[in-house]
Structure formats: structure tokens, C-alpha cells
Amino acid sequence: MKYLVIVEKAEANYSAYVPDLPGCVATGRTPGEAQERIREAIAMHLEGLREDGLPIPEPHAQAALVEAP
């Protein structure tokens, strides 16, 4: 499965989260580091859901770049 990951610039670093996996977040000093850490966070999040016998959410979130007028 492929989940949408949002990476945002914070004050002193970058943060990443997954809209379809509430609570699945990570941070990094660079966008690449935040992406690497969110991959690890997704794996741990899904493993925890499986261990708890909970359903794995299907990816639904989408993103688009829209040019401002």
C-alpha cells in the first residue's frame, strides 16, 4: 500500500504525517530525513495495528498542486 505523506517545514526542522494513519508522525532535520523516519513510523504503526488485531486503514488521502492565480 502507498500512503500519502505530508512533509512540512517547522520552525527548526521538518515534520511529516500520514493523513490516513492518525498519530503516525515523524520529524527530521531535512525533508529527506523526515521522509526516512516517517517510513519507519508507518512500519511500526502498521505492526502495532496488526498486533492489536485492528484493521489496517486503506489509503484514501490525495494531494494536488494547484497554481495560484
Written overview of the protein:
- The protein is an alpha+beta fold and 69 residues long.
- The protein contains one helix and three strands, in the order βββα.
- It has a three-stranded antiparallel β-sheet with strand order 1-2-3, covered by helices on one side.
- The model has no long low-confidence stretch (mean pLDDT 97).
Could you give a short description of this structure?
By secondary structure, this protein is α+β, with helices and mostly antiparallel strands.
Binned, the helix content reads: 25-40%
Beta-strand percentage range: 15-25%
Shape: flat
Strand order of the largest sheet: 1-2-3
Query: What is the count of β-strands?
Result: 3
Count, helices: 1
- From the alpha carbons, calculate the radius of gyration and give it in angstroms: 13 Å
Which class do the helix and strand fractions yield? Answer: alpha+beta
- State the distance separating the first and last CA atoms: 35 Å
Mean pLDDT score:
97
Report the order of strands and helices: EEEH
Largest sheet: 3 strands, antiparallel
Poorly predicted runs: none
Provide the descriptors you would attach to this structure in a database record.
69 residues, flat, 17% strand, 1 helix, alpha+beta
Topology:
Blueprint: E1 6-9, E2 14-17, E3 25-28, H1 31-51
Antiparallel strand pairs: 1-2, 2-3
